[in-house]
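pasting tRNA-dihydrouridine(47) synthase [NAD(P)(+)] for the record, 682 residues
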Amino acid sequence: MSGFPAGTAPVKAEFLISIDPIAVPDDDAAEGSGGGGLTSRNGRDDPDTNDGGGRNKRKRNKEEKKARQGQNKNRRFGKVRDEQDICFKIAAGTLCEFGAECKYNHDLQNYLAAKPPDLWMPTVDELLSASSGSEETQNVPNSRPARCPIFEEFGECKYGFKCRYLSAHIQKALSEDGTESLSLVVDEAKKAHAAISAKEVNYVGADTQKLLRTKKYVFPVTDAYLRELQEADKREQEIEMERKHLKEAERERREAEDSTVVIAEPEQKQETVTEDKTDNLHTQIAADGLHPDVDTPDVSIRFAEKNRLDWRGKTYLAPLTTVGNLPFRRLCVSYGVDITCGEMGLATSFLSGSKEEWSLVRRHPSERTFGVQIAGNKANTLVPTAEVLAKECGSQGGIDFVDVNCGCPIDLVFKTGSGSALLDAPAKLGKALIGMNKALGSIPVTIKLRTGVKDGRNTAEKLMTRAVGGGGESGWGIGCITLHGRTRQQRYTKLADWEYIRQCVDAVRAGEADEDLPPVPIFGNGDCFSSHDYHSAVDQYHVDGVMIGRGALIKPWIFTEIKERREWDISSRERLEGVKKLAEFGLSHFGSDTSGINTTRRYLCEALSFQYRYVPIGLLEVLPARINDRAPRFRGRDELESLLASPNSADWVKISEMFLGPAPEAFVFVPKHKSNAYESQG
Ligand SMILES: Cc1cc2nc3c(=O)[nH]c(=O)nc-3n(C[C@H](O)[C@H](O)[C@H](O)COP(=O)(O)O)c2cc1C
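structre below
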């Protein structure tokens, strides 16, 4: 490593272009710019929004709009549509019930004549053997049939004539009078198989969204629980009044007595009850109106009755706003990740029936253990959200856990009392979690924490001990705790505090009663970048597993490394296979029409804006690689490896063109890192 400035990746001399490290992207901006599931929805995240003619006007609630304006000023993604639009029914090869009255184009021949040439999905071998870049490889050679990833997966392509890989599923027939008719091909066998094995789940439709929007959705469990809380609050107020009266009476009694008389015992006891400063948590809980010993509502769904989370030794892909979308999670599954979690959604947006928010709960069937993450600030938003999730998705078996975000650092979320603000409001959190447990039935609730709000003031240990409780029954019925080893204030440039993570785990384990029930799994989180990091975290820091965020964004194959306990010197060709997969998964989710391709391209570039940071380990003098090491300028072992390491966003667009065809002029890509969302952050 000699000769390298501290914190620089030790690239072998023969690959070095310059020892100066390239600028480090701001991961704080990347996390914050999308925080709250707030800003990711300015592309077309929800494939169902595509109705072929923009019939659905997107309604966004005020909070989301404000967030987008405040947090994402610099990010614009050009809208791309076909030059001529066509009625989506006609595009799907069906009849339109509006007939001549329909305000959308029904002239298929005309539409097809104006449509840009088809694309094709080359294999990596075809791509690498082709002489030059994107445009040439994208023209369908007459000798080679086009491939449509959606048709291949589902046996039909619901984008029909709008599909940009149309030649893979169109057939022409000549009628007797010599006119040509066009129809869409369906592979019935594949279609039947896909209906069982390949369909995404957790569709929460327009009807439910409307009921939520119009406040007609019914919440029996929430209503009962909130009533219970109100009664508990009332009781607490009565107790408080009683205490005041006693105190007052005592004061009067003392005044009447000789001042030299020794203070009576009961008074001291009274003081310790009301001013016990040794236990901030309890004081806080009492202050928030829920005395832990007096008023904690009964946890009728006990941990023992919940679906048990046996997560020891598993890998967990962190919730990642914008970048942790369904196609990316699917890619990680293909590399072996065990547990996946959707991007954070706001409880208030779920409850206002936001289409974009509900699109975040979508799950691919390959996601073996899948959870939804929500952010909210109290029981009366978190509990009803849990209730809808349980009713609408739980019944489909679509959710394995619901995670409450207690770590989001961004101002917009923090200031509403959500995200990391909950770290300092354990009473509110406890009430919400207990209610969520009731609302979710057998689906476990998990929490994702940071170490604390302010640097030098870690509070997670106390919170975790309280959350887990003792006697074999968890205090708040928690299914799993993930602890990100940073405070809200701490930036990504400083390493996560794994020593403190160990301290928290040990404290929780020491407090747990020795019963038959398995201990609540505790996952550590922060800076995991290799198989070595994962396994040493489990061995040295006593966690049950590690949640991985940026490590997966930079090298999604990290999950294979961990499973196989090896550091994988992945080749550029193998990496390109991964990029192709992500493109195909994107098309399958967002659509293979012009608009879907645009959205896929945007998210592919988003992914590449992290993946370029990977320094191939075959180029390193010392292993394992470390996430915070800055890369010096280097050349790869082949042209493709150099291209994949390019920090230039124009090159990410170029890579996208290999599979998605030439980017339209309107397409502009601004990576999340450049959105400066943290400028306002303290
Ligand atoms: C781009 C980005 C988006 C994130 N979005 C979320 C989110 O939606 N919910 C959440 O709890 N944490 C979010 N985080 C934090 C990560 O889940 C994780 O806790 C953090 O990155 C630390 O893990 P790492 O060092 O492995 O990246 C995000 C982080 C990044 C970089």
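The first helix runs from residue 27 to 33.
The domain at 315-568 is CATH 3.20.20.70 (TIM Barrel).
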